[in-house]
UniProtKB/TrEMBL annotation:
It is found in: Cell membrane. Gene3D superfamilies: MFS general substrate transporter like domains. It comes from Pandoraea vervacti. Residues 17-390 form the Major facilitator superfamily (MFS) profile domain. It comes from the Bacteria. The lineage of its organism: Bacteria, Pseudomonadati, Pseudomonadota, Betaproteobacteria, Burkholderiales. This is Major facilitator superfamily (MFS) profile domain-containing protein. It is a multi-pass membrane protein.
Amino acid sequence: MDERCAVPHRPANAIGKAIVVIAGPALAALIPMAVTPALPALSAAFGHVPDGTFFAQMVMAAPAAMVMLGAPAGGALSERFGRRKVILIALLLFLVSGIFPVISPNAGGLIASRLILGIAGGVILTTSFSMAGDYGDHTRERILGFAGAGAAFCAIVGMVLGGLLVDALGWRGPFVLYLIALPVLLLSIFVIDNHKQVHSRVAEGTMPVRAQIPIFGLTCLLTIGLFMPGIQGPFLLRANGITSATTIGAVLSTYSFTAACAAASYGTLRRALSANSVLALAAFCLGAGAAIFAVAHSIPGALAGCIVTGIGAGLVEPVTMSLVLSRSHPGIRQRCVGLLLASVFLGQFLNPVVLSPLRAMFDEHGAFAIVGMVLVGFAALILWRGFDARASRGRALGASEN
């Protein structure tokens, strides 16, 4: 295979592979969201453990740390064993560990299955996203946009169906939703080929892994802003006197819906704007949305903040993933995708860590204002400097290493 390894514009089993690429992030979105409606029931069912509420929260949150580990591990495993074997095993583990709590009556088995689910989810994310690199530019942009939209819509649907299943079947009910991995697994068996990895580290026109570190770092920063409505929003709404959980959930759901619509439009947007411009737009919307939250003291203001932030949130993952895929040689593509996804989950983890002291010093509104100013500043910096210069240096470095 030639070192330059031109990417085919229509790979074999193109439609089936595209479905798997889109399904991967959707499955990962179900990991926390499907369980969220069951938290009170879980807490009551495991009231015999020292802290039932904390245990229920850990059931939802524990997989996130494993996803952060599984994503880069999936890249390394795919390079060593090929993506077909890796994604099939990951999908099987996802299916088994996902539905295991339906038959597991003990706390230890429940937590263990959730940890395995997180690792499998991270591997699925890396391998599915890396397959998007098999497509030509315009097709890849559309697929990545639909993948982001699918994840957002799946999160919404998962929460709704999860609540219905809790009412019908008790706390075990939502775990049935992980059966959706079965048709994805069956499809993958037939459409994913035994991909032969390219063992050269880098090729001319692409960037080595370390040259992509600025993209990883920026992604982590943007992800901190991306999770402002979901993690910090309920506290700001409560500070504004909005205490109804139903009202808070309805307000924040507009964020997820807007993010899904923005992600779905990414492919069309990329035909009019460069990747660098879309990245700057995403950073600006995240910052502007946080600033709107900072001055909002009513439900309409919070809705406006959710909508503007949602536009930026829907664009972050497709554009950063596209940048990494377009500048990574197939031999290191899985590794780069895994590190990018680890950056996303690191940003999610860092959001409460970074915001906690800001809230203590400036209250909720002040914390949102500071985050908004920082992100708008980075949007201006992206427009001014961009990644073009770094890409040129990365290609020169790659050529010298090659």
